[in-house]
Amino acid sequence: RSTGVLNFTRQTSWRNRRLLILGYHGVSTADEHLWDPELYIPPELLRARFSLLRDGGYTVLPLGEAIARLYDGSLPPQAVALTFDDGSVDFHSVALPLLQEFGFPATVYLTSYYCLHQRPVFTTGLRYILWKSQDRTYDTTGLTADGKPFRLATAREREQAFVSVRNQCTKRGLTGRDKDDVMLETATRLGFDYNDMLRRRLLHLMSPDEVASLPRDLVDVQLHTHRHRVPADAAAFEQEIVENRIIIANLTSARAATHFCYPSGVTHPSFPERLGRLGVNSATTCFPGLASSASKPMLLPRLIDTVATSPIEFESWLSGVSALLPRRAVRANAAS
Question: CA 327 to CA 140: how far, in whole Å?
Answer without folding.
Answer: 40
